[in-house]
Amino acid sequence: MYRYDQYDQEIVDARVEEFRDQARRRLAGEMTEDQFKPLRLMNGLYLQLHAYMLRVAVPYGTMSGKQMRMLGHIARKYDKGYGHFTTRQNIQYNWIKLEDAADILADLATVEMHAIQTSGNCIRNISSDQYAGAAADEVADPRPWAELLRQWSTFHPEFTYLPRKFKIAVIASEEDRAAMRLHDIGIELVKRDGKVGAKFFVGGGMGRTPMIAPEIRDFVPEEELISYAEACLRVYNRYGRRDNKYKARIKILVHELGADEYRRQVEEEFAHMKTLGIDPPVAELDRIRAYFADPAYETGLPEAVDRSDPDFALWLDQNVVAHKQPGYAIVNISLKPTGGIPGDASAEQIELIADLTERYSMDEVRVTHAQNIVLPYVKKADLYTLWQQLDEAGLGASNLDLITDMIACPGLDYCSLANARSIPVAQKIAQRFADPQRQRDLGELKLKISGCINACGHHHAGHIGILGVDRKGVENYQLLLGGSGAEDASIGTITGPGFGEDGIVDAIEKVTDLYVSERQEGERFLDTYRRLGMKPFKEAIYG
Amino acid sequence: MAEFLSFRTGDAAQEPAVTVEAFTGQSNATAVRIEPGEDARDLLPHLDRLSLVEVNFPAFGDGRGYSAARILREAGYEGELRAVGDVLVDQLPAMRRCGFDVFKPNHPLDDAVVKTSLERYDNVYQKTIDGRTPVWAKRHPEKIDG
Amino acid sequence: MILLTGNDLASGDVIWWTGSGWSRHVGEAVDAGSEADAILARESAARNVNAGYSVEAEATASGPLPLHIKERIRASGPTVRTDLAINADIPIVKA
C-alpha cells in the first residue's frame, strides 16, 4: 500500500500545525464561529448533536494494521471508546473536544493519516472498491489512480470553495462495489488497445434529488487524468448553482445543462488545460503503482477448508469471497451484529482487527462503503483460526449482503441534521429478522436507512430503503423499494404513506413475505420487485 | 493590521475599477472589477490594456473568483490581480496560488498571521500559474522540461 | 418557556442557561423569557457558549423539558447508548 515520502509527510505535518493555530485563534476569540466553521469543516470537525465530531480520512478505504491500531487509540484516549465507520470508508468519532483536535491530528500524522477535506465544500476522500488488488475481475488496481487524485485534490487552490461538497469514487471492475455512479464523479478504469484509461461518469448523487451519473467520457488516458478532472471541476466551480444549497451539487448542473452540453464545456476546458502542463508525468503514477504491487503471496497453499464446525461453515459461505490468488480468500468482517449499531466498533474491536490484519492479512485492511471491514489477503488455511478470534470479539456475524447487513446513518441519535432516528429502526429490523436461516432464505437484500433527506444512509440505493422524516414533531418512516447502488444502479420508489417505528418493521415483513411467495428460481428480492413492479407490493403493505 | 496587502513591486493601480459591462463597452478604462457570476474570459481580448483586475468576493464561501483569477493568469495577464471583499487570512495561500497578488479585505488582517499562513506549506501538490514546483516535479526532476 | 442552549466552545458539551451560567443538565435550565436574544448575544461574544440558540420547553415536575425530540435527545444523550447518557431519565418520545 501507499507510503508517504518526505513531501507527503511535510504537508500533513504542516496541516496539523495550521489547524492547531486556527483552533487556538478560535478559542482566543480572534475568529467568529462563522469564520471558523468552514476551516474546521475542511478538517472534518463538525459540531454535532452532542459534541464536536471528527471524521478521519481513510483514503480509498485502505489501511495498515498500525494505522488501524491508531484509530483504536484515538477512540480510547480522546473519545468514549468507540468509532463509527462511514459510507465513505472513513471513520468518525462522536465525542471530540476542540481543545484536543490538533493533538489527535498530530497522533494521526505519525501513522500517515489525517482528516483533510473530510467535510466542507471541497473534494472529499476518494473512495474505491474494497476488494481492489484482490479481486479477480479488475482490469487494474484502482487505488494508484485514487492516490494520484488524492494528492491532486489535497488543498487544491481553485476548488476549496466549491458550490457544494464533491465526492469521487474509482473502481476497476464491471461489478460495482463502491456505488460509483452515485458519486459526483465516478471513474471506472477500462482497457482500450491494451492501455488502461478512465471512463468518467459525472453528476450522480443521492440527497433530495437522487441521480445516476451519465457517462461523460469513455476514455481518458492516464497521462491526461488530472487535466480532465480539473476541467470537470472548473466548469462546476464556475457554473454550479450557488443560490440554493439544495441545488448546488454537480448533478443539478449536469441535469440542467444536459450531459451533452456539460460534456462540450468540459471538452473545451480540457483542450485548454492540456496546454498548461499540469499533468504529472506517467512516472509519477508508476511510482505510486509500485506501492500497490501484489504482496508476497506464498504458493502451493492448500485450497481445502475444514467445514466441520457448522457456525464456521455459515460464515465461510456468507462472508468469505474468492480471491484472485490460489490459496487465499477475501474476508468480510461484519459490523452488523444483531442489536448492534451498524458501523460502530469499540476500541478493543478496532485493536483486535489491527492485530488480525498484521497476523493474517499481509498487514492490509479495508473499510467498505457498506460500513464493514475487509481483510483482503487471508490464507484459506488461516480462516478457521481467524473466525474463532473474530467471533469471540462479537465480530463473527455471518450476514454479508443479507437483510441485517444494513447501512444506517447515525440519525437523530447523533446528527444535528437528522429528522428521525435510524439506529433504533435498524435494531428492530435486525431483531425481527434475527433467525439466520430466515435471513439466508431471503438472500441478497440490501436495506439502507437514512434519518433525513440528505441520504447519508443511501436509502435511494437500497433494494429496500427507509427514509426518516419529521411529521409534526413525531418520527415517521417512508419505505422505498427497488433501488440499487451496484452496476445495475437504480433509484428506489416510495411505496406510499409512511409508518411509525413499529409499523415500518411490519411493512418490511409484508414486503419480504410477498417476495418469498412470488419469487422465481434464482431471483433476488430486487429481481422479483423489478419483474412485478410496485403494485403487488403496495397492495401487500396497505391493502 | 493590514488593510491592503501587495506582493507586487511598484505602486498599486489607482484608477477606480469599472464593471465588466462598462469595461467591454468603453475603450479607455484600464481597471475592471469582476463579480462572481461574470465570465473572466470576456476580458481576454483586452488583456493588453488592463492594469488592474479586481475580483470581488461578496462572501468568503463563494469560490468562483479563484477560477476567474487562474483563467486570467493562464491567458497571460501580468497586471495587478486584486482580491477584494470578504477575504480571510486563511484563504490567502490558495488565492496566491491562483494568481492574486494584491488583497484588499473588508476586515484588516493580522500581519503575523498573514506571514505564518503564507509560509506554512513548503510543498504543494498541484501545478498552477504561481511558478511553484509541485511535489510530483520534485519527485521526477529528470522528467520535467525547463 | 424558552430555554437557551448551545455547546461549550472548548469541550463541545451540550449546555443550558441557568440564569447565572451554563450547565450540562437541562434540569438546571431556566426560562430566559424575553431576554433570550440579549443573553445569547452577550454570552456568545464572551465565548461562554458556541452556536447558541433558544428552544421551546415545558415545565414539568422533574424540571424543564424541551418540546422537540431533537432537543430532548440533546439533553439526554444518544438513545442507543444509554450507558453514555447524561440525563437518562428524560422521556424522549412524548407520552
UniProtKB/TrEMBL annotation, chain A:
<dbReference type="GO" id="GO:0051539">
    <property type="term" value="F:4 iron, 4 sulfur cluster binding"/>
</dbReference>
<feature type="domain" description="Nitrite/sulphite reductase 4Fe-4S">
    <location>
        <begin position="404"/>
        <end position="541"/>
    </location>
</feature>
<dbReference type="InterPro" id="IPR006067">
    <property type="entry name" value="NO2/SO3_Rdtase_4Fe4S_dom"/>
</dbReference>
<keyword id="KW-0479">Metal-binding</keyword>
<keyword id="KW-0004">4Fe-4S</keyword>
<dbReference type="InterPro" id="IPR045854">
    <property type="entry name" value="NO2/SO3_Rdtase_4Fe4S_sf"/>
</dbReference>
<keyword id="KW-0560">Oxidoreductase</keyword>
<keyword id="KW-0349">Heme</keyword>
<dbReference type="GO" id="GO:0046872">
    <property type="term" value="F:metal ion binding"/>
</dbReference>
<dbReference type="GO" id="GO:0020037">
    <property type="term" value="F:heme binding"/>
</dbReference>
<dbReference type="Pfam" id="PF01077">
    <property type="entry name" value="NIR_SIR"/>
</dbReference>
<feature type="domain" description="Nitrite/sulphite reductase 4Fe-4S">
    <location>
        <begin position="119"/>
        <end position="272"/>
    </location>
</feature>
<feature type="domain" description="Nitrite/Sulfite reductase ferredoxin-like">
    <location>
        <begin position="341"/>
        <end position="393"/>
    </location>
</feature>
<dbReference type="Pfam" id="PF03460">
    <property type="entry name" value="NIR_SIR_ferr"/>
</dbReference>
<dbReference type="InterPro" id="IPR051329">
    <property type="entry name" value="NIR_SIR_4Fe-4S"/>
</dbReference>
<keyword id="KW-0411">Iron-sulfur</keyword>
<dbReference type="InterPro" id="IPR005117">
    <property type="entry name" value="NiRdtase/SiRdtase_haem-b_fer"/>
</dbReference>
<dbReference type="GO" id="GO:0016491">
    <property type="term" value="F:oxidoreductase activity"/>
</dbReference>
<protein>
    <submittedName>
        <fullName>Nitrite/sulfite reductase</fullName>
    </submittedName>
</protein>
<keyword id="KW-0408">Iron</keyword>
<feature type="domain" description="Nitrite/Sulfite reductase ferredoxin-like">
    <location>
        <begin position="52"/>
        <end position="109"/>
    </location>
</feature>
<dbReference type="InterPro" id="IPR036136">
    <property type="entry name" value="Nit/Sulf_reduc_fer-like_dom_sf"/>
</dbReference>
From TrEMBL, chain C:
<dbReference type="Pfam" id="PF11011">
    <property type="entry name" value="DUF2849"/>
</dbReference>
<protein>
    <submittedName>
        <fullName>DUF2849 domain-containing protein</fullName>
    </submittedName>
</protein>
<dbReference type="InterPro" id="IPR021270">
    <property type="entry name" value="DUF2849"/>
</dbReference>
